[in-house]
Amino acid sequence: MTIDDLLKEVLLRIVPSEDERALVDRTMEELKELAEETAKERELDVKLYFVGSTAKDTYLSGDHDFDLFLAFPLDTPLEELREKGLELGKAIGEKLEDYEVAYAEHPYVRARYRGNKVDLVPCYDVRGWRDVRTAVDRSILHTRWVNENLNGRNDDVRLLKRFLKGIKAYGSEIYVRGFSGYLAEILVIKYGSFMDVIERADFILRQKVIDPANWLKKEPEIAMKTVKREVEEDKPLVVIDPVDPRRNVAANLGWEKYGRFYFSSLEFLQEPSLEFFFPAERTAGDYLGELRQKGTHLVTLLFDVPPMVDDLLFPQLERSARGFEKALSREGFAVFGWNVGRYGTEKAFVMLELDRVERPRVKVHPGPEFFTERGRDFYRKNERVWLVGKRLYAEKTVKENLVDVIRELLEKNQVALGKNLREPIKKADILVDYVPKPLESEAYFFLSREKNGLKQ
């Protein structure tokens, strides 16, 4: 099968049918009528904008959430926008199937209508980047820019999105660190087509800075400040937002996800396959068999977590896992990797793969040079002390078992943890070479490197 034939087959699966398009269009019309009617009842001067993939016609078949932005005049005070915007969102939500209040920079409403997710988001009615006051305001400008520049390449965006989803590199959430839909749209607009983007995976990385709107010439001082900041933070790409020179569209893109895109693109060009777009569901193996084969050990901490959205929870879980990695490494344990996630609705876990679960009862503790004040203090405080050259050393008795070591580290606050997870983790259940049945697949995919691996 040629690449052209393969892409045609993919498009048959991901391009919405005429009936589906008609349903999406009708749903948007109904939602807008409901919102306009509700705003009029409350005598609110708001304009309504659909943003996101449904507004740009870049959505995949079967995947059409709706983002309806409630745009207030620019002279509205921020507190008033938040208060009245939330009230309006709730009032609209009451006319839909159900709703809940969610929180980002300011509260918004998440609802459902005809089985689809609907986000009702207050914002300012901005005309350009200088009007932007909240993070969400740009979405109106993003939608307008894409619709003005896509020029019929909607299906190329669909192919790129499906490819990124298939290789698990899609999603700009902070706990995913992949490509956003908007970034995919920009890449297609900039380079021409799905295949053009795939063929340039190496070039895009080496080019580093992408400036679709030519901000480096139009607003050089502001654009260069953006580039400098993002390069110093070692971001894989700097894509200057075509609607705002202050922002890097790829700010949340991590090296790992770009690496997946990089290698998958190379492999797709060598051996094109539907598997890149629609990977087969993975079957979990025996995690205990993995441990036996590798000769390593698995420690899992299970703990309660306070109610938090994933955008807040996962960075704190990752900080905690890195904290354990550093603390245990200082104690002489080699940590080969870590994994985090939710366990049910009210618990979370941190998994660590280690070289061993026991260590010697003694640890050699290097000290300072003997003729210093610190040296004399070290000599007074320790028992078995000796010299190697001019440096003092001592032998200290330590906890042998890994669980005891972890407990002691936590008691002494010697592990860097997520700020909302410190107390829950101190009360964690610590499991060694065992996980509850619901986590067996997670443990296998972690230990086998299939969860984040590039090559098995």
Mean pLDDT: 94
The CATH first-level class of the largest domain comes to Alpha Beta
Question: In the CATH classification, which architecture of the largest domain applies?
Answer: 2-Layer Sandwich
Distance between the termini: 25 Å
The CATH homologous superfamily of the largest domain is named Beta Polymerase, domain 2
Oligomer state equals single chain
Number of helices: 18
> What are the segments in which pLDDT stays under 50 over at least 5 consecutive residues?
none
Widest sheet: strand ordering:
1-2-5-4-3
Whole-number count of domains: 4
Rg estimate, integer Å: 27 Å
Which fold name fills CATH's third level, the topology of the largest domain?
Answer: Beta Polymerase, domain 2
Task: Provide the β-strand percentage band.
Answer: 15-25%
Shape: globular
Q: Which structural category fits the helices and strands?
A: alpha+beta
**Largest beta-sheet characterization:** 5 strands, mixed
Helix content: 40-55%
- What's the total count of β strands? 14
